[in-house]
Amino acid sequence: MPISSLLAVSATVLDHNRSEAASLPQQERMLDGTLSASAVQPIGESVRISISAEALNAAAKHQKAEQNKNADIDDSDLPDTMKGLLKRIRELREQLEQKQLELQQVMADQKLSESEKEQKVSRLQGEVAALSGAVASAMQDLDDLMNSKNISADQKKTAGFLLMK
Known about the structure:
Layout: H1 3-22, H2 53-69, H3 71-74, H4 80-108, H5 114-148, H6 153-164
């Protein structure tokens, strides 16, 4: 679930819990205004989630960092579909780099038995292959989009520049 969705759900749940907490006795309210476990009464099949203020702040900081990471894409004059593909390509490349690093670490790990190492290497190679395929597919989608839309030469240059970052 995307962090933005989690934040929206969390804020709604917290607001609801705080309004309920105001009407409960003090022993059932926690210091931050959320309900204690004993104060939450399930209604039918519904589920209530209470997230601490620290967790919400951390999620908000993470979301802001993610937005800043792609600010150059957001600020470009490219169509939204191209922006989305460029962001997805960046995300996939980042995941690919992480998996490749993890693969190198496993291969260099002298503590693992040969069978453990073979299993982990095989799993990671599969993940690297899947991510490489996803990057290639997203790049092809971007190329198709640039060739099918009325994209100016400047926009193509911008997209190419953003791909290089």
